[in-house]
Amino acid sequence: MAITSERLRQTFSEGGAQEIYQDVKAEGDFLGFARRYVFDPEYRLARSALWGLTKATDEELSALQAILNELIDQAMQTKNSSVCRLTLNIIVRLKMEEADLRTDFLDFCFEHMVSFEELPGIQTLCMKLAYRMCSFYPELMDELKRTIEAMEIDYYKPALKGLRKRILNGKLIINV
Hints:
Layout: H1 5-9, H2 14-27, H3 30-37, H4 43-53, H5 58-61, H6 68-77, H7 81-91, H8 103-114, H9 120-134, H10 138-149, H11 158-168
Helix pairs in contact: 2-4, 3-4, 4-7, 6-7, 7-9, 8-9, 9-10, 9-11
């Protein structure tokens, strides 16, 4: 079935997201699909497109490396928590080199990983991304560890607590 804006607006289930992914995979144009729909100002459209892309393999998602900065901009600028979380989910699966380090994005990740108001999924993704960015510079890694040591951990969800513990114990493995 063809992917259209109307179809994306109607995607509300895991099965629907899986179908979107299968159709993008059949077309073989992950980058073109992302450019067409992921940045749409209508959050339902962008959310469904991103949700479908999260079903892709890391190898398939590597096609999105060319738009890493645009994805980062979207994560930082969107007012929709679903679009933010799904965009961060894509970013965390892309390669991030030392040259890709953006201080505005690092600041965003620091702010959102410790925010009590933030959703747990966004907090953990931000903490993972902050860890990856800080891994390039020992002084930044020290700052990250000091920040997460200072967190009042009782107020956070188990996923964030576990990630925090793995970082502090030096047991977080960066897969990308």
